[in-house]
DNA sequence: CGGACAGTTGATCCCGTTCAAGAAACGTGG
DNA sequence: CCACGTTTCTTGAACGGGATCAACTGTCCG
């Protein structure tokens, strides 16, 4: 299961073995349970084996902003391995199965197997690219475009993770969570979703979403998947010569 | 000059030497000149020796969102070393002096000196933390709080970089750029700045900003500097035992 | 001195919020 | 299997923060 991760980088057998040998404890996490809390000193990183999780922060006024969503195969909390205190919360979106890896084991791996470290670093960089796009999304797009963009991002990421096909997927978020991810109110999220459906840009049944005309939705969202760096997600051209 | 960076991590002499030996070319960059363009295949990383730069993206509708600001000592474009295509623009805010380092040199350094790599990785993680806070800022704070928060972030970062003292600094951004960083319009930024000044929360003369009562501004901004991970910016507790 | 750019101020408008209430869907326990 | 409380979704009406448009002022610089 941790091996999913190996695909991303051209590692030698030693690297592979070191990854397999990482001490870890697989654990089930209930929906809405905290995986990490802001302000906490954290001593473990973790890999999502199954299910979804999200990162969020809460302002002093009590407003919540979701700053990122993670899916199976994502390595989260690398922050914990290299920084001292968590600056945001990570919470399970659905029931998850998560592999916890002790902080020191990650640090040791990075130092002894720099190629593995670099492969993980790529993850961090892609996460950063997604955060940047979210700043743009929330800062400069209107509600309609904003939600369309988020839906576009999800299909592409889910497809890359093998969890969506033919532009159909289950979005494991309530409209309230969607609102917290887009900086809108649940009421307005609902109106926009209804409008998008009315125009035939999306189809919805419960939390299932289908995009009948990808090009059309892509256009209204102004979506360009460059920032997802999908070429790096499956197989990485490499740190070797290339 | 590159040595500024060394302070951050407990490196051994070999690591230091490797950093000093990094091939680089120091170059002056005019204000508003592009250091990196979205979509470009980029073959070099760079360190800001002097001056300010900012990262931004432009939506299809032509709206610009600034997603980050960098100051002397910041290592930017590490993305270039590990990813293939730039997903955003980096542009000089002021006249800058920048050290360009070839992509391959950075890659080689990371693999041969993992401790140095980890120290740079910390930079990437802190950048990520700042992006997350910007998502919150733009997504869930009103204009007043949003601008106050940005001003708070800048003092603390500038102080950490030795560029501000006693809560006074020169903010090298026009109000239009401030607007693009906060997802507002220049007009509204102006009104909010005037209001903050009228209330005595800030003092302004041209682009110089002074914060007479830090606690007061901090409170209206709901600012907590946890996410800046300032403990990591000066001296890093370390990858060794600790 | 003049032209460009940055900052300032006013009037009006609109997108998204807020408040409120009803309708589905969901998960419980009997 | 149904009755139930709870959560999520849906819809309407009124409000408001920030946008937009437009004009004016100041400042830098050639």
Give structural notes.
2 copies of one chain form a homodimer. Chain A has 242 residues and is an alpha+beta fold. In chain A, 43% of the residues lie in helices and 21% in strands. Chain A has helices at residues 13-21, 78-82, 103-112, 114-140, 143-160, 175-182, 186-198, 214-221, 230-234, and strands spanning 25-29, 34-36, 44-50, 53-58, 64-70, 75-76, 89-92, 96-102, 168-170, 203-205, 208-210. In chain A, the strands form 3 sheets. Chain A has a 4-stranded antiparallel β-sheet with strand order 1-8-3-6. In chain A, β4 and β5 (64-70) form a beta hairpin. In chain A, α5 (143-160) crosses α8 (214-221). Chain A starts with 12 loop residues before the first helix and ends in an 8-residue tail after the last helix. The interface between A and B is large, with 57 and 57 residues. The structure holds a DNA duplex (30 and 30 nucleotides).
Topology (elements, then pairings):
The structure is a homodimer of 242-residue chains.
Chain A: H1 13-21, E1 25-29, E2 34-36, E3 44-50, E4 53-58, E5 64-70, E6 75-76, H2 78-82, E7 89-92, E8 96-102, H3 103-112, H4 114-140, H5 143-160, E9 168-170, H6 175-182, H7 186-198, E10 203-205, E11 208-210, H8 214-221, H9 230-234
Antiparallel strand pairs in A: 1-8, 2-7, 3-6, 3-8, 4-5, 4-7, 9-11, 10-11
Helix pairs in contact in A: 3-4, 5-7, 5-8, 6-7
The structure holds a DNA duplex (30 and 30 nucleotides).
């Amino acid at each position: 299961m941790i091996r999913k991760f190996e695909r991303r980088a051209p590692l030698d057998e030693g690297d592979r073995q070191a990854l397999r040998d990482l001490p870890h404890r697989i654990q089930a996490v209930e929906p809405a349970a905290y995986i990490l809390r802001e302000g906490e000193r954290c001593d473990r990183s973790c890999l999502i084996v199954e299910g979804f999780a999200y990162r969020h922060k809460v302002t002093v006024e009590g407003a919540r902003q979701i700053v990122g969503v993670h899916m199976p195969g994502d390595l989260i909390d690398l922050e914990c391995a290299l920084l001292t205190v968590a600056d945001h919360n990570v919470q399970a979106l659905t029931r998850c199965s998560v592999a916890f890896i002790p902080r020191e084991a990650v640090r040791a791996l990075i130092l002894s197997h720099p190629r593995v470290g670099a492969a993980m670093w790529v993850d961090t960089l892609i996460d950063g690219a997604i955060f940047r796009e979210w700043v743009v999304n929330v800062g400069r797009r209107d509600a309609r475009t904003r939600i369309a963009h988020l839906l576009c991002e999800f299909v592409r990421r889910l497809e890359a993770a093998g969890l969506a096909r033919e532009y159909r997927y289950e979005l494991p978020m309530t409209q309230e969570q969607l609102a917290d991810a887009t900086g809108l109110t649940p009421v307005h999220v609902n109106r926009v979703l209804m409008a998008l459906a009315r125009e035939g840009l999306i189809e919805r049944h419960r939390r299932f979403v289908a995009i009948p005309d990808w090009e059309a939705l892509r256009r209204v969202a102004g979506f360009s998947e460059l920032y997802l760096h999908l070429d790096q997600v499956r197989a990485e051209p490499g740190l070797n010569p290339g």
